Amino acid sequence: MTAKYPDSNRCASAFIFSSYSFSIAYPLPTGINIRTTHVPAVLSWNSTYCGDGGCGRPGLGPINFNTYKVESCGNVTFHYPFSMKDQDDSNDWFKVICNKTANGEKVPFLNINGTNLQILDFNFLDGTVKINHPITYFNLTGTRFYYSDSHNIFWSLGCGNLVTFFGNETDNFIGGCLQPSCRINNKTSSIIGCPVTIPKGLSSFFANMSDMVDSSDYMRKRSCGFASLISYDFDLTNDFDLSNRTHVPTQLQWGTLISGECYLNDS
């Protein structure tokens, strides 16, 4: 631990802590103080160690499957259960709307709760669809989709803020992170991934940003920023432009993942 404010007189702790202890009953390690000697942690005894190559499917090669009624719109290819054709009422959630832009390009959309969200990619084996998600609050409750816990990560942009994430606007705390101080690298912004475990079946989230910089500090720098759920493969760089950005790529889960061999029928 390195003190970034030499004139301050503070004590602090840094330790490994079990993410499984972040639950409704024990949301934060609030009881940590200078006299704390033990905290919950999880040990692994490598019971599933499969060697340096990992635990794969040796000798079986790539997984091949027959797609059913492959369709495309623009540069996105998709198939069952998604379709551009009229479907039964029970499958209207998977109706793809293919619109033409002013320059003649075709762009696919999903209409979720009355909002058209652009489809960026489709992955059948993962049961996910990547969409252009608004940075502002959005709710998937009551739909056939939820935010993927394995293909998304919470990210924040800015400095000197405490970022906290909730399941909705009022409660259901999920986690958070503290952005680096603006005084560390003399920048007004930083891009960090928040080490927050995304709960399974998350249908909505709300981000809150609290300024942690002392307003009386003469070296204080103001920072604009945002916090949101973003697809894990999105390339965030220091050139990330927030001023004109209203949407970020986010992965929605439409199918439930089941471990084991899967046999696909032709229909």
UniProtKB/TrEMBL annotation:
Protein's membrane topology: Single-pass membrane protein
GO terms for molecular function, please?
A: polysaccharide binding
Is Zinc a UniProt keyword of this protein? no
Q: Does the keyword Membrane apply?
A: yes
Q: Which InterPro entries match?
A: WAK_GUB
Superkingdom of this entry's organism? Eukaryota
The residue stretches assigned to a coiled coil in this entry are none
Q: Could you tell me which residue ranges the Wall-associated receptor kinase galacturonan-binding domain spans?
A: 72-132
Write down any Gene Ontology CC term.
membrane
Where located?
A: Membrane
What name does UniProt use for this protein? Wall-associated receptor kinase galacturonan-binding domain-containing protein
Say which species the protein is native to.
Answer: Gossypium barbadense (Sea Island cotton)
